[in-house]
Amino acid sequence: MDKVTWGIIIAAVAFAVIVGGYFILKGGYQAPTPTPTGPLAPEKVAPGEQIPSPPEEVSLPDEEEAIAPALTEEQMITPEPTPEPESEPEPMQEPTPEPEPTPEPEPTPEPLPTKEISMTARNFAFIPNSATVQKGQELKINFSISGTHTFTIDELGVNYSLSGGYYGTGSKTVSFIPDKLGTFEYYCAIPGHRANGMLGSLKVE
Ligand SMILES: [Cu+2]
Which of 28, 73, 93, 145 has a Cα-to-Cα distance from 66 of 20 to 30 A? Predict the structure, then answer.
């Protein structure tokens, strides 16, 4: 009977070792992966009783898988910042408004067209004896001259000699730009001519 009892005990121990080794192998290979999360000591103590632990391990990979798709979604959102290159064309639009400042030189229209008139200078009168011009406008006077005279405006610094030539007749064109507003007298500076009525008035407006 002893031999049989020993045999049963040996057989039972061998069976336990085989079964335990089986579970150790099954749980031992899977253990490395879950170790980071659950460093539970009981795994080594009861290899056969750890069977329920594997389902917990399965849940962990599910969480990782759940995190992975979330990352992909984030990656789907990240591509949005790519449109930045589209903002680059903006500097191209800035140079275009530059042409606007160029039209600023509008003061150019100020140059008024030259005013041209005809006038006779003779003893002892200017005909006509009045004229009008705008300030800053060039006044051009085409003289028909009889005798020797001058066309003088003291306030405007105007003083031209008018000579009818040896035979007493001639022509001359003079021009000036009044730089003052007002009414000024033009006259002949030859002694006695102004006193005899050789004068007129120029209105600068
Ligand atoms: Cu005169």
Answer: 28
Question: 113 CA to middle of ligand 1, Å?
Answer: 30
- Given pLDDT bands bounded at 50, 70 and 90, which one contains residue 169? confident
What is the Å distance from ligand 1's center to 142 Cα?
Answer: 16
CA atoms within 13 A on the CB side of 152: 12
Bigger pLDDT: 158 or 91?
158
Given a contact cutoff of 8 angstroms between Cβ atoms, the answer to whether 185 and 110 are in contact is no
* 204 beta partners: 133, 182
| pLDDT score of 155 more than 60 | yes
Helix (H, G, I), strand (E, B) or coil at 7: helix
CA distance 120 to 116: 14
pTM: 0.48
Q: Is 116 in a helix, a strand, or coil?
A: strand
pLDDT band at 167 (very low <50, low <70, confident <90, very high): confident
Between the CA of 193 and the centroid of ligand 1 the distance, in Å, is 5
Alpha-carbon separation of residue 73 from 59, 61, 66, 203 (angstroms): 22, 19, 11, 86
